Amino acid sequence: MKIILAPDKYKGSLTGWEFCEIVARGIKKVFPNAETVYRPLADGGDGTIDVVIDYLKASKEKIVVTDPLFRKITAFYLLSEDRQTAFIEMSEASGYKLLQKSEMNCMDTTTLGTGEMVVDALEKGARNIVLGIGGSATNDGGMGMAQALGYVFVDANGNQLKPIGRNLGKVREIRTNNLHPKLMDTKIQVACDVTNPFYGELGAAKIYGAQKGATEEEITFLDEGLRHFANILRSTFKIDVQEIHGAGAAGGAGGGAITFLNAELASGVDLVMQLANFDKVLQGADWVITGEGKLDSQTFSGKTINGVVKSAKKQNVLVAALCGSVEVTIGQIQEMGLDYAVSILNEVGNLDDAKANVEENLELASYNFANMLKLGKS
To answer: CA nearest 323: which of 63, 14, 109?
Structure first.
């Protein structure tokens, strides 16, 4: 029997690798000779770097970059063993995790540090860059990232603008005569699992501005700035970012990456599965066991489990989900394409209890699942 273990993390409880080890223990108590293949996954957001480091046989590259408020910090990104592929998490340089709650205000934050990591990867030889853009503290339309790569943004008086959300509406010209020479020879893919447009009621500012510290008045100001910036991008590059699904991701950095980096947006979990050689590993498997902290309606939209199911069904491999909690209906489980889904909780308690007992509960759930399979074979 061949079983692929392909979970996301249980946020705050277990890493994907820990999930694999625990579930394998439970299975082997019933099927000691089962082949269990570890393929933990992620959706491109914060923490993905810890999953893909092994798939890339990568080293962690240390670099001093600019944080969202223009302070110098040390950050890391991944560079593959052959130095051809880099994996960069935007949150390492431009994430809200770097700020105190009192410092959060996307009027004044920048993606400059993310661009600095891209530059470093280019100069170290990377020709393929995967950029995860989850967890940003910014709403600058990718201006900061672009500035690091040589773009210059100027106002009506010809003065260079600081690359922050506050200045989006002041941009009158984008100068492109000093771009990084290796930029256009590099394939850049952006892990993006949201479909928000650049501006408007469902755009970057109006949907995410409040959680990044903007007031209602500032949200309106930022949205108008993004609308103006989109017009400048259209006239300069002949690209209408408003028409691109996901352009509003990470405060408009999704659209900025397409325009300034010639990047393509792709599902985060699809990109991680690609790095994990997931489709090849699936060949000949009997089951995939996946999981995450909570199985709910959001799992439908770009989450790891959804990506696992899509790949598994192409090869007629059955999928089981062992999750911290299951908050979906039978109909939704069927719609997701899951063949088995269960909460690992075995007693009523609070979140702290669940986290404290997660290893024991997960091993028991995997043992019970394996026993069910054994009964089916007898």
So the answer is: 14
SS3 readout for 264-296:
EEECHHHHHHHHCCHHHHHCCCCEEEECCCEEC
CA gap 368, 364 in Å, rounded: 6
pLDDT in tens, 31-79: 999 999 999 999 887 778 889 999 999 999 999 999 999 999 999 999 9
277 C-beta neighbours (distance < 10 Å), count: 11
For residues 319 and 286, give the distance between their C-alpha atoms in angstroms, rounded to a whole number. Answer: 9
Burial of 102 from C-beta contacts in 10 A (0-12 / 13-18 / 19+): exposed
Its pTM surpasses 0.85: yes
Chain segment 245-292, per-residue pLDDT in tens: 999 999 999 999 999 999 999 999 999 999 999 999 999 999 999 999
Structural tokens at position 377: 């074979």
Report DSSP state, residue 7: -
